[in-house]
Specification:
With about 450 residues, the protein is of the alpha+beta class. It is built from 22 helices and six strands. Helix 2 packs parallel to helix 20.
Length: about 450
């Protein structure tokens, strides 16, 4: 093993339930319920339907549950399908990406192991720690790689923890997760496709499959990070720090989204009701947004001014802010094909300009614990009035824990269930099971509440 692999294996074997403080345990529960809410509405998406059709054709033993469709398949395909559901509507958590994408992989591993709810919660927290440590240590974006690069490893080692793999097997699982699976970041730039909302699901599947192989004795390169042509060769050398923070668990640093939109757009978009009260929309002459450098391309390049897909629209700052100003806010219904194509909103979108700021990038990069999300907005009217505001985060940010209490997460579940016409009795079974996951003797019981809820039509 190289030094990084030794560190990963040692941390995985030593990580246990006592690593979860009461606040970390509570936040892990919040994230699990929030992820199930996102999966509920995501099950009704076209990407989920496509993968479910393929998953249905694959019979396996052991098998795992595909949410919503009432089918079972191989654990890795179930992880792929369910992770797509959690992610596809851009409604799930955020921390240097979207670590709750990993949760379905951990659940599939726990389901076939008949792990307890607390064991699964511990494995989820472990996956977050590994993912967060890599994101803070490695410059994978500069190398052109997607966030799934490290979700592979987080899922592989969390599954290995649940399956009680040996240190040698854990080493192979981490290597198998990384070496053949380096996802490119291209899926998140320009005009966006289904792959934007599903890219990490492939990494989750690959991470679980890597653990499955390692469990059966499949070996891999023992020095995947520091060896010849290892990851350090591509990204540059880095020193992985585990745990990432002394006083925080990574689960506690994740943000829970109040609306379905790209994370960096949310804080300023929440100002839309105030701006609407301040000025009639037709009197707005210009809106200038200032963000950490780099995001002006991610959220404000040419395709974002004429989005043609839902995936492009939920990453278009001009569309998101203009839609919020016109409608009063952003909801799941903000991304219907009719609303995305609405020609009447294009003139307002063209008044919105997104600028990058080196200063705000430095503030974001220097933040410890929860990642800061600094942004500024300046609105000018045709009469010369100005509205200006600066923010450091949004509702659901760990620095504003009161803004996404459990009643807000419950309301989110209600909205997601309503979107797929879920029967209220089923919704309440999901709510009851997942808020009480720590009491589950077998994770299969909570997962069972998610098994079949889509209407046949």
């Amino acid at each position: 093993m190289d030094t990084t692999t030794e560190r990963l294996v040692g941390y995985t074997t030593s990580f246990c339930e006592s690593h979860l403080t009461e606040s970390a345990r509570a936040k892990t529960t919040d994230l699990l319920v929030d992820s199930m809410a996102c999966a509920v509405v995501g099950a009704g998406s076209e990407p989920a339907a496509i993968v479910a059709r393929i998953a249905k054709s694959v019979q396996a033993s052991p098998s795992a549950t595909v949410f919503g469709f009432g089918i079972r398949t191989s654990p890795d395909l179930a992880a792929l399908a369910n992770s797509m559901m959690v992610r596809t509507y851009d409604y799930n958590d955020a921390y240097f990406g979207h670590p709750s994408d990993m949760i379905p992989g951990v659940l599939a591993a726990g389901e076939i192991a008949h792990a307890s709810g607390l064991q699964v919660m511990t494995a989820v927290a472990l996956a977050y720690e590994i993912y967060g440590a890599f994101e803070r240590s490695c410059q994978r974006v500069k190398a052109g790689f997607d966030q799934g690069t490290f979700m592979n490893i987080g899922v592989a080692l969390a599954a290995g923890k649940l399956w009680k793999l040996t240190p040698a097997q854990l080493s192979d699982a981490a290597s198998l997760a990384l070496v053949p699976n380096l996802p490119l970041g291209v899926s998140r730039w320009g005009e966006l496709s289904m792959m934007k909302g599903c890219a990490t699901a492939f990494s989750v599947r690959n991470g679980l499959f890597a653990a499955m192989l390692a469990k059966e004795g499949f070996t891999s390169a023992p020095e995947p990070f520091e060896g010849i042509y290892g990851l350090h060769h591509v990204t540059g050398a880095f020193d992985l720090r585990l745990p990432l923070e002394k006083d925080w668990r990574v689960v506690e640093m994740a943000y829970i989204k109040p609306i379905p939109a790209e994370n960096n757009t949310i804080g300023l978009t929440e100002l839309a009701p105030r701006i609407r009260e301040w000025s009639p929309i037709e009197e707005i002459a210009s809106i200038d947004i200032e963000m950490a450098g780099g995001y002006e391309v991610h959220l404000g390049d040419e395709p974002k001014y004429d989005p043609r897909t839902r995936e492009t629209a939920d990453h278009s700052f001009p569309y998101i802010l203009a839609r919020a100003l016109v409608d009063g806010g952003i909801t799941l219904d903000s991304y219907t094909p009719e609303r995305i194509a609405d020609p009447s909103i294009r003139p307002l979108m063209r008044k919105i300009r997104v600028h990058g700021s080196d200063e705000l990038r430095r503030i974001m990069s220097a933040s410890r614990g929860p990642e800061a999300k600094p942004a500024k907005i300046r609105v000018r009217t045709t009469t010369g009035r100005e509205f200006a505001e600066e923010i450091m985060g949004h509702s659901g940010h760990p620095d504003r824990p009161q803004s996404m209490r459990r009643d807000a997460i419950n309301a989110k579940l209600d909205l997601c269930a309503q979107a797929v016409r879920m029967h209220p009795e089923r919704r309440e079974k999901i709510r009851e099971a997942w808020w009480n996951i720590v009491k589950a003797a077998d994770i299969g019981a909570p997962i069972g509440t998610m098994a079949a809820f889509l209407s046949p039509d």
